[in-house]
Amino acid sequence: MNEYRIDGMTVKEHLLKLAENGNKKFTESLNPGVEHVLGIRIPDLRRLAAQIAKDDWQEYLRTADTHYMEERMLQGMVIGQLKMKDTEAYLELVAGFVRIINSWSVCDTFDFCGKQRFVDKNKERVWTFLEQWMASDREYEIRFGVVMAMAHYVDEEYINKVLQWMNRISHEGYYVKMAVAWALSVCYVKFPQPTMQLLENNRLDDFTYNKTLQKITESYRVSAEQKAVIRGMRRPSTGKKHA
User: Fold this and answer.
1) What's the rounded mean pLDDT across residues 192-201?
2) Is the pLDDT of residue 123 over 60?
3) Phi, psi of 10 (to 5 degrees)
């Protein structure tokens, strides 16, 4: 199989060159347990992704490797640059990327091409797409659905659906729990009343629940009075779920 090249170099050669100006140890510290981390700086990866997206991106995706964490990340970044008229074909590419996510940073550096404009144009279809991942049993697939729901659906129309999903998700993965807590804190900032109702009666495990409260109190958009109430809601960490 012929390997895709751009500017006369393979993608792996580009990545190894970019890694020379990266920060391997720091990136590894942010992604504990993830193997084959190069430590490439995100802006450098995005510039390479933009080049590939303007070139023969089909050939790139067909031959792309997943050995290095940044190779996975780059695939998401390239897909995030593609302007495709066929929504289903585009979501199929995104789905292929979601299945190779192996760290929170690979997950969280992705966004749809067109970002909120793309979502707003295909609101119901993309929501169904995200529900598919939130219903998964795999840690990073769930995180993808949660992070994208948080980024694009915490609005008047979808807030109740987002809250219902956050309450429904049950997974022991640390990066799922952190994503749900993050999403709920954003929900609280934007829609405090319905989110408070959920916090007063929910199925969240103690870690996720308490982490949600912590993230809410860390927000500069929450008043001192609200933070005092939130701090008073903390549970003892028993590890048990509340019905």
Assistant:
1) 98
2) yes
3) -70, 165
